[in-house]
Amino acid sequence: MNTSRDEIIAVALVEFARDGYAGTSLQAIADAAGLSKSAVLYHFASKQALLEASVVPAVDALGTLLDDIASAIDSPEARPGFIAGFVDLLFEHRLAVSVFVNHGRGLVDVPVIARAFGIIDRLGGYFASVGIGAEDKARFGIALAGSAYMLVAGDGHEGLHADEHELRRAITAVMTELLSPIRVLDRPTPPPE
Questions:
Q1: DSSP states of the chain as a string?
Q2: Which member of 47, 50, 134, 182 has the greatest number of CB atoms within 10 A?
C-alpha cells in the first residue's frame, strides 16, 4: 500500500482526537493506516512531528482569523463574516480542534500547541484592550469556546451530528445571538450603584 503523508496525517488526527496524544502510539497510527511503524517514521521523525503536522493547518487558520478580527468584532456589519469564518474553521478542522480543545492543556510544551494558546491569548488581549465589559467578555468566550466544544464533544454522542447542515446553522445562530450584545467602544457607561 502506498500511503501518502496526507493520508497518515488524516489517520493520525482521527487517532489523536479519539484517544488523545498520550493515548495514541505511533504503532496504533501505523496499524490504522495499514502501514508499518517504520513507514510512518519515514514521513515523520516522531509522534510529536506528526502531531504538529496534523494541527498546524488549524492553528494557521485560527491565526488568520485573529488577524481579521479587529475589523469584524467591533462592527455589527462585519461580525456575521467573522462568525461564519469561525464556524467554517470549526467544521473544516474539526479533528484538530478536538485535539486542541480536549487535550491541548497537556500539550503546552509542543510548539504548535503553545502557538495556538498564544493566538488565543492575543484574542483575549484584543478584547481587553478595546474596553468591553465582563459580560461581553463572557458572551464572547462562551460563544467561541462553547461552539468549539459543542462541535468536538458531540463526536462521541450518537445522533448529535446527524445533520451537519442543521448543526452548522444552529451553531451560527447561537454565536450570532451571543455576540449581538457586544458594543465595543460605544457601550454606554452603566449608572453608578
A1: ----HHHHHHHHHHHHHHHTTTT--HHHHHHHHT--HHHHHHH-SSHHHHHHHHHHHHHHHHHHHHHTHHHHHT-TTTHHHHHHHHHHHHHHTHHHHHHHHHHGGGGTTSHHHHHHHHHHHHHHHHHHHTT--HHHHHHHHHHHHHHHHHHHHGGGSTTTTS-HHHHHHHHHHHHHHHHTT--SSSPPPPPP-
A2: 50
